[in-house]
Write a structure and sequence with these properties.
about 100 residues, mainly alpha, 3 helices
Length: about 100
């Protein structure tokens, strides 16, 4: 068994996590989901290959966790922003509907 393979998978998962955080900040949902799926496969591969992570691997796992939190925060911020925009559009539609019933006399 190649003992470096689990660490290589974890290192690649960190690279993907960095890219994923940047993509999430940019708002590309499809690419974010794709990168997350790729990263998940690598993390599963790491877990199968290494029962007890060493100190360096634990540091990489912590970095992945922090980057993941950042990506989730970015996506949640975008979701709330879209929700506010939709609410404002609905208010505008209701106002137009209300005022369209009044006519100048």
């Amino acid at each position: 068994m190649n003992h470096g393979a689990p660490t290589a998978a974890l290192e690649r998962a960190v690279e993907i996590s960095r890219e994923l955080a940047a993509v999430a900040e940019g708002g590309d949902v499809r690419l974010t989901v794709s990168l997350d799926a790729e990263r998940l496969l690598l993390l599963k591969s790491f877990r199968l290959g290494r029962k007890q992570p060493n100190a360096g691997e634990l540091a990489l796992l912590r970095e992945i966790s922090q980057l993941n939190d950042r990506a989730i925060g970015s996506m949640e911020h975008r979701l709330r922003s879209k929700g506010r925009a939709m609410d404002m559009a609905a208010v505008g539609r209701r106002a137009v509907a209300a005022y369209s019933n009044t006519r100048q006399r």
